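Work Package 3 (structural annotation) set out to generate three-dimensional models for the target panel prioritized at the project kickoff. During this period the team completed the workflow that converts sequence records into discrete structure tokens, so that structures can be stored uniformly alongside our sequence database. As a representative example, we reproduce one entry of 273 residues exactly as it appears in the project archive.
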Amino acid sequence: MSEVHAFKPYPQLEHDSFSAGDSDKRALFIHGFPGTPFELRSLAESLVERGWQVSVPLLPGFGKDIINLAHKNRNDWLGKIKNEYETLKKGSKHMLLVGFSMGGALSLTSAVTLKPDQLILLAPFSKLPDWREKLLPVVKYVLPELRPFEKADFNDASVIAEFKKMLPDTDLMDANIQTQLRKLVTLRTESLVQLREVGKLALANAAKVSCSSVVIQGTDDKTVIVRYTQRLVGQFETKPTYIEIPGGHEFTKPFDPHYARLKQVFLEQVFEP
């Protein structure tokens, strides 16, 4: 019988919660699904260099805690944002809320009650790019678990690169480990239902956002589709500044070729009190 490998996802510190700076200008950054603070850490650090204080929390059920994702829901994530925001706000004079992907949808909904001075959304999620997403509330009873890596091609260098981000200390060329990743790693369908509900909340709450807002969208994004973001922007009562730039869904990460442009546009749009 082959040995069952004990996977330890995201062991690197760069995936943990991050905070830095000391200022009364403060920014809270919210990552996406199934991401970690790494997605936004470089942008946050660029604000620290400009004299800001920042916080980039790890949402419940992600990073090292991703094994518990099935037991977390949108209320856990919204509650975490509220607590982090209120803690960061103490002693501040200016508050910026930044969200990426699912974190963008959560930030939009949170902004209705938290009322930051400015809201910046990066490729904000609002809808899964598949007509079958409408069936998720039913599918979760028929197919409660999905195996996202069931058909993973471990001969594809890009597949290996993605796995290395999550499992850097794992021998991905080991046939036994490959089999376990295909068969044992599951994603609860309920987690996708929660993601869907987060998007629906964002669409419903967009008209209630009263603060100054900016939305930045990559034109080549296959995860958060341009037309869905345009539809979300159209729901705002107070229209946000909407900017499209070249790039896909990885454009917040410093290794992405479009990151430099995103960073430039982001810093240009941040309101300096």
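The longest strand covers residues 94-100.
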